[in-house]
Amino acid sequence: MNEFEQNVQSKRNDAIDAGMGFVVSFGFFALIFIIAGVVQFVAR
């Protein structure tokens, strides 16, 4: 057996961490898109 399988730092589900990473990155790019839309609207 692998020695790292015996001493696990975190037993959380990886899908939760991957989902949170997706949500945070999606929110960041959505925020940039919204800011760009507001700047384009104000510049008219």
UniProtKB/TrEMBL annotation:
Protein name as it appears in the record: YqzM-like protein
Keyword Membrane listed: yes
Lineage start: Bacteria, Bacillati, Bacillota, Bacilli, Bacillales
InterPro entries documented for this protein: YqzM (IPR025416)
Domain of life of the source: Bacteria
Keywords: Membrane, Transmembrane, Transmembrane helix
Record-annotated membrane-spanning stretches: 20-43
One Pfam family here: YqzM
